[in-house]
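Example record

One chain of 168 residues, shown exactly as stored in the release files.
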Amino acid sequence: MNNHETVKLLNDLLTKAYDAEQGYANAAERVTPGSHLCRFFYGLSRQRESFVEEIKSLMAHYDGKPHEGASLLSKVHCIWFLLKDLVTGDETEILEECIRGEAAAIREYDAVLTLDDLPHNVRTLVSRQRNIIASCIHEIHNEEDAVSEIRSNKLESAQQSPSQNTAV
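Predicted structure tokens for this chain:
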């Protein structure tokens, strides 16, 4: 793989990292401010910001010029996310959307890792970031389970409260 091809590949990954950074920041803004979930999403946004910096640093090794900012598709997706949020306002839906995005990222990272002529330092970075993303999917599923449990407990409490009031 020549330097030009390596830089193009890294720029593609860089754009995905920008998209994820922005997506998680948007998700954090859609949940209760200061909540555990809000902090969780901002943490993932910062993590993706570090992905951006790592990729940019590696690009310098190949004399590449990094793209700046999220993709047009990401911006369109953000608008769709806003509209969907206005309709549902559901944290579970936000988490599901994050899982879909992470699953897509895993597929893209896996495709890069299949390249035989991928430089070793690029393979190392891509593999490490891919494993972090895979771990994030597990964490997001855990958050989704917690949100569902909280919702279920609130529903049970609400259903029990009226019967307790009528017994008095």
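Notes: The domain at 3-158 is CATH 1.20.1260.10 (Ferritin).
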